[in-house]
Amino acid sequence: MSTDQERAHQLENPDGSGPPPKIDMVGTVPGAPPVPEGAEVMTILVTSPPNSPGLPPHRHSGPAFGFVIKGAVDFEIEGEPARVVRAGETFWEPGGDVIHYRDGNHLTDEETVFVVTMFCAPGQPMLTLVEPEELEARRDRRAPRS
C-alpha cells in the first residue's frame, strides 16, 4: 500500500515560467462503495452559520465525499461514532441506506464551509429526509454517544 507521501505529486512544467503546482493527497477511501449506474455527479459548497445544527437526519442515494475548507463540522453517519471534521480534513459516506445523522457547524462563533461531491442515483433527489419512526426503528444501528 502506498503512503500519503508516495501519493503526493510534484509535476514538472517545462513550459511554465514559475514553479509547477504541488498536488497533495488530502483524503482517500479504500474499497469505496459502488457508484449508482448512470449517476449524476454534483459538487456543492455548504456554508453553515455559527451554531447551525445542519440538516435533519437524511440519506443520499449514492456516496458523498467532502472536504472542510473553513471551520469544523459535527459529522455522524449510521454505525460510526460522531466526530468533528476540521478545516483541511475530509469525510465520506457510502450513501444508499446509510443514515447521515449530523452535519452541523461545530463552532458557535464562526461559520463553517465545506465542499461535497455526491454521486446521485438517476431520478432521485440529492438527499431524502428520514422520518422519526424510521429513526426509532433503527436506533440500534447508531453508534453509542457520550
Structure, described:
The chain is mainly beta and 146 residues long. It has one domain: Sandwich (Jelly Rolls). It has 2 helices and 11 strands; from the N terminus they run H-E-E-E-E-E-E-E-E-E-E-E-H. The strands form 4 sheets. The protein has a 4-stranded antiparallel sheet, with no helix packed on it. Strand 6 and strand 7 form a beta hairpin. The mean pLDDT is 90.
Level-1 CATH class name:
Mainly Beta
Which consecutive residue ranges, at least 5 long each, have pLDDT under 50?
Answer: none
Count of spatially separate domains: 1
Q: What's the total number of strands?
A: 11
Report the sheet with the most strands, covering strand number, pairing sense and barrel closure: 4 strands, antiparallel
CATH architecture: Sandwich
First-last Cα distance = 34 Å
Strand content: 35-45%
State mean pLDDT (0 to 100 scale): 90
The strand line-up of the biggest sheet is 3-10-5-8
Work out the radius of gyration.
18 Å
Element-level helix/strand string: HEEEEEEEEEEEH
- The DSSP helix count reads 2
**Coarse shape:** globular
Structural class: mainly beta
Write down the CATH topology: Jelly Rolls
CATH superfamily: Jelly Rolls
Task: Give the proportion of residues in helices.
Answer: under 10%
